[in-house]
Design goal:
Blueprint: H1 2-23, E1 60-63, E2 75-81, E3 103-110, E4 112-113, E5 119-129, E6 132-140, E7 147-150, E8 154-161, E9 167-174, H2 177-183, E10 185-186, E11 189-190, H3 197-200, E12 203-206, E13 209-212, H4 213-219, H5 244-255, H6 288-295, H7 313-324
Helix pairs in contact: 5-7
């Protein structure tokens, strides 16, 4: 019994160390871009009028997701631009098939900064060229007139009031090209994370009316006409009227599963956090203490490794409630 006790203690102490090693020891090479990006974001003609208004240009569509990635309480706008005459083809409830030349843009901002108005921080682009995605980050200038291509990451001091009304001071991190690639990696390819069909299959408001987003995009000619009756949807983890398990699993799917699934950057760990993975095969029960500890403390062992410099208290509490209730 004495030796068993010490074995358990040693395993608990070593688990975080082994976990970090596993997440960073995939042995795979970095994935380079297949294209050269323009120096200015304005050259991609994603916005009309003053760029600071981030109003989608004609031919550019707004995308909304059911569950979204937490990034230091930043707000986000998601846009997609297709080549003229091309359409997206749904491929089950996962990632659709996007046409050659597709541009996806995600702009990060805070609405109330130091008592003033909105401040745009960065816009990330994904461009599909010769069947492969390339990724780049653009940092908005102080005047909010345009955004410049970045090769390296940067830290931006922010003093803002979040949507919850709480004032926070943080050092927002703009990721480097390599950091973007680590999260967007699936085996040896860069792929989008959020715009899976199940995450787009929600009701949105357009022109004062509620409509299913996939149907709306079909009517606009962005998505090829197809039946969506059999498609499921990823639950909105902010919706506290939904069952706890659905909300917690949806949170893990969008915030963790891009790395913690087969082919992901941390695919060689004992966790597979995709929403569609059966609980018995997720590793959640085995790692339940480690999940809460590592998401609730900043530092070297913090998860997620990228995209956050502060703890998502609401998200951690959601996972804690769910995990503590597992038998």
């Amino acid at each position: 019994m004495k030796y068993k006790k010490y074995t358990i203690i040693a395993a608990v102490l070593l688990c975080p160390v082994l976990y970090v090693w596993a997440c960073h020891s995939s042995g795979r090479e970095k994935i380079g871009n297949g294209i050269s990006f323009n120096r200015k974001l304005s050259s991609y003609r994603l916005f009309k009028g003053e760029m600071s208004a981030i109003e989608a240009a004609d031919g550019v569509e707004l995308l909304q997701l059911s569950s979204t990635l937490f990034t230091d309480y930043a707000e986000k706008q998601r846009l997609i631009k297709l080549p003229k005459g091309k359409k997206i083809i749904l491929n089950g409830e996962g990632l659709p098939i996007f046409p050659e030349g597709t541009i996806m843009a995600k702009t990060f901002y805070y609405s109330k900064v130091k008592g003033k108005g909105r401040q745009l921080i960065e816009t990330r682009l994904l461009i599909l060229h010769q069947t492969k995605w390339s990724v780049a980050t653009f940092r908005w200038d102080a005047q909010q007139h345009d955004a410049d291509l970045m090769n390296d990451g940067a830290n931006v001091p922010m003093d803002f009031i979040g949507l919850d009304g709480e004032r926070r001071k943080i050092s927002y991190h703009i990721p480097s090209k390599e950091e973007c690639g680590s999260c967007h990696r699936q085996n040896d390819e860069i792929i989008p994370i959020g715009p899976k069909a199940r995450n787009l299959n929600i009701t949105i408001e357009r022109a004062g009316k509620n409509i299913n987003q996939l149907i709306y995009l079909m009517k606009k000619g962005t998505i090829k006409q197809t039946k969506i009756d059999s498609l499921t949807h990823l639950p909105n983890y902010h919706d506290d009227t939904l069952p706890l398990e659905q909300r917690a699993r949806a949170y893990m799917d969008i915030n963790c599963a891009h790395c913690h699934q087969a082919g992901g950057f941390a695919g060689n760990t004992t966790l597979n956090l995709s929403y569609r993975t059966d609980l018995a095969h997720t590793g959640i029960k085995f790692n339940k203490s480690n999940i809460i500890i590592r998401t609730n403390e900043m530092g070297e062992f913090h998860m997620p490794k990228l995209g956050t410099t502060v703890i998502d208290k609401e998200g951690v509490e959601l996972m804690r409630k769910y995990i503590s209730g597992l038998k």
